[in-house]
Amino acid sequence: xxxxxxxxxxxxxxxxxxxxxxxxxxxxxxxxxxxxxxxxxxxxxxxxxxxxxxxxxxxxxxxxxxxxxxxxxxxxxxxxxxxxxxxxxxxxxxxxxxxxxxxxxxxxxxxxxxxxxxxxxxxxxxxxxxxxxxxxxxxxxxxxxxxxxxxxxxxxxxxxxxxxxxxxxxxxxxxxxxxxxxxxxxxxxxxxxxxxxxxxxxxxxxxxxxxxxxxxxxxxxxxxxxxxxxxxxxxxxxxxxxxxxxxxxxxxxxxxxxxxxxxxxxxxxxxxxxxxxxxxxxxxxxxxxxxxxxxxxxxxxxxxxxxxxxxxxxxxxxxxxxxxxxxxxxxxxxxxx
Length: 337
Ligand code: NDP
Prior knowledge:
There is one protein chain. α1 runs antiparallel to α2 (29-45), α1 (11-24) runs parallel beside α3 (55-63) and α2 crosses α10 (310-321). The chain has helices spanning 11-24, 29-45, 55-63, 92-110, 127-135, 188-197, 217-223, 232-249, 287-299, 310-321, 327-334; strands spanning 6-9, 74-79, 82-91, 112-121, 139-144, 165-169, 177-181, 206-207, 213-214, 272-277, 323-326. Helix content is 40%, strand content 18%. The two termini are 20 Å apart. It has a domain at 73-184 and 228-309: Ribosomal Protein S8, Chain: A, domain 1 (2-Layer Sandwich). By secondary structure, the protein is α+β, with helices and mostly antiparallel strands. It has a seven-stranded mixed sheet with strand order 2-3-4-10-5-6-7, sandwiched between helices. It is globular and about 55 Å long. It contains eleven helices and eleven strands. Bound molecules: NADPH dihydro-nicotinamide-adenine-dinucleotide phosphate. NADPH dihydro-nicotinamide-adenine-dinucleotide phosphate binds next to β7 and α10.
């Protein structure tokens, strides 16, 4: 096999491959359909770091017994605006899919409602949690805390996970606006890639062994201490997510997830919160015009683009041409089928 050889897969082939790896790892068909859909959409829309290359991690979490492949979440409306789930140690998306219709109905009824879930795993992009709600006409905001890797501003050891958040809102005549980002300056995967390719990072993204901000990916991988985006502002957002993700749901704090490799699985059991808002119940009948106006101001502004719209460009290209997958990764995945 040539070192950098690749193979082009259609999205249907990506879905079938993902499904078969997950079923072999023990997932029931309903669960594997859901997770394979997220893997396929990650490959389709990018960033592809959370697509096929996550499958060995998912498989390992099931075969090691760390995560439950046939989870049956329990969901309870514990307050007029709060739907709470216990994920039965499975993947968050299984619980979220089971709760979605009720969350949408509650949001239409009350103007705002929240879904929160603990005892579950989340490793994927968060936009797949918010986008379906925006497609149903709602504004959505999702957070999940993860595994401690991000140092608070001025600190010397990690407290927060790379704690991502996603926001989505409907946009008349177009796909919803959906953005999705981590709280760290640079994703761990990007640091690993820079180390593998033998170059420095464009700006300091973590601490070296002396506790100093560093552009050296190997030094950062040694400490596993990443910097938040935007200095103290990003650290404050990571704090917010730790509280809204873990503290509200009763999920595991990022500092307490630090031993997850002891389970023989690369997995993270934080806490998830998803807030849904019905803009039609908030009193401004011009909501759609406001969103259109904000987007128009960005689109006509030099090279700026509405955050998250890169996914729509990627989506069109992958639907037309399929996706290119490294032969090395494909060989690994075929070995797990
Ligand atoms: P990126 O920095 O790649 O992108 C962040 C967001 O900004 C995206 O919505 C992206 O959408 C948008 N964007 C990027 N460039 C521009 C631009 N020039 N103008 C406007 N918008 C832009 O994401 P991260 O590295 O921070 O996160 C990667 C993924 O990892 C996310 O999906 C996140 O949810 C996931 N993650 C999951 C974790 C978990 O525990 N489950 C933990 C940490 C991260 P687009 O490029 O499509 O426009």
